[in-house]
Amino acid sequence: MVRYTDSTELGFGGYGTVFSAYDNKEGKWVAIKKVNMEMNVITAAFTRETFLMQNIRHPNIVRCENVFVEGESLCIVMELLNMDLQAHSSKFNSAYPAIVKIFLKHLLEGLAHMHGKFIIHRDLKTTNLLVDTDSTPPTLKITDFGHAAIALNPTLSPKMGTMAYNAPEFLLGAVDYGMPVDIWAAGCIFGEMSEWGADEEGSMVFGKDAETDVDLLFDIFGLLGAPTEASWPGVTELPKWINGMESLGFAPKDLNARFLKLDGVGIDLLKRMLCLNPSERITAEAALKHEYFNGAQSMQLKLGSLQSTLFSLSVTAATCFYCSV
C-alpha cells in the first residue's frame, strides 16, 4: 500500500515544494516538503534542519514525522498545521490580546526545550510560528530550522534571520552570541502580539521602515536608549559599533506609552526580554516563571471553551507556511 496519497501542492520555497498528503499508515493528514537532490547536492542548512527536526520532540515545536527519498527528491514529512501566527492574528483578531499570554507561554516553552539542548533557532518571527487551531485551546509551535545552530560552536555566522527580529548583538557583528538572540526575537513577537486586537493589525516593534542594520539599530536605541560600556561591557569593541553612537542623545522611552495594552507586569517581562545587554537578558526558563504568567492556566481553560466558535478550521483550508526556508 502506498503510504502517502491524495497529494495537493500547497506552495514552494527556496528549497523545494510543499504538499499536503494523507498518511495511510497513521490515518492523518501531513505536510511533505520535497527537495530536489540535483547532482546529489543538499545544502548544509537543509541537512541541519532535517537533523534537528528529527531530534527535537516537544508539544510547541513542529514535529517531523518521517524522512524518505522519492525519485530525485528528499522528503521531510511534518505535522500539518492550519496557519502561521501572522495569518491567525488576521483571521481571529478578536481573540487578541487575550490569547497573547498563552501563545507567549507556548513560544517560551518551545525555546526552553531547544535551549536546554543548546540549539539556537536564529530566525524566529511571526511567520515561523504555526498555530494548531484544532487543539483546545490553539497551540503555538516553532517551525523552520533552516538557520538553526548549536550554541556550543565558539564562532557563529555574524548575522542570520529576518532583520526586524535581529538582536542588537547580531546587528553589531558579534560571532560569539548564543540563546539570548532567540529571546530578543521572542520579545519582539511579544510586543507585536500585544498590539493586535479587534480591527487592529499592529506592526513590528522595530524596523518597520528600516532599510539597513544601522537604521534598525537607531530604531532600537530610539526606544530603549543606546548602550554604553557601563551597561554592556565590550559593546564598543564589537565589529560594527559606530564610534560616538553612545553620544547621539538616545534615551530610553517609557514602554507603557508604546505598549498600551500591556499592564505593568507585562511591561516588566518585555523589558527583560528586550534587554540590550545579552548577558543580562532573561532566559526562556526564567521568563516562564515570571509573574506575568500567573493565572495563565485559568485563561487557557477559558479560551478553550471558545474553541468551537473562534478556532475551528478544516485541514482542507490550510495554506502552506512550511516553505520559507
| Total separate domains | 2
Number of strands: 10
Q: What's the SSE pattern? A: EEEHEEEHHEEEEHHHHHHHH
Major beta sheet, specifics?
5 strands, antiparallel
Poorly predicted spans: 305-320
Mean pLDDT: 85
Shape: globular
Radius of gyration computed on alpha carbons: 20 Å
CATH architecture title of the largest domain: Orthogonal Bundle
- As laid out across the biggest beta sheet, the strand order is 1-2-3-5-4
CATH fold node name of the largest domain = Transferase(Phosphotransferase), domain 1
| DSSP helix fraction | 25-40%
> Which structural class do you get from the secondary structure elements?
alpha+beta
CATH class category of the largest domain:
Mainly Alpha
- State the end-to-end CA separation: 32 Å
The CATH homologous superfamily of the largest domain = Transferase(Phosphotransferase) domain 1
Report the portion of residues in β strands: 15-25%
Number of helices: 11
EC number: 2.7.11.22
Catalytic activity: L-seryl-[protein] + ATP = O-phospho-L-seryl-[protein] + ADP + H(+); L-threonyl-[protein] + ATP = O-phospho-L-threonyl-[protein] + ADP + H(+)
Family: Belongs to the protein kinase superfamily. CMGC Ser/Thr protein kinase family. CDC2/CDKX subfamily.
Keywords: ATP-binding, Kinase, Nucleotide-binding, Serine/threonine-protein kinase, Transferase
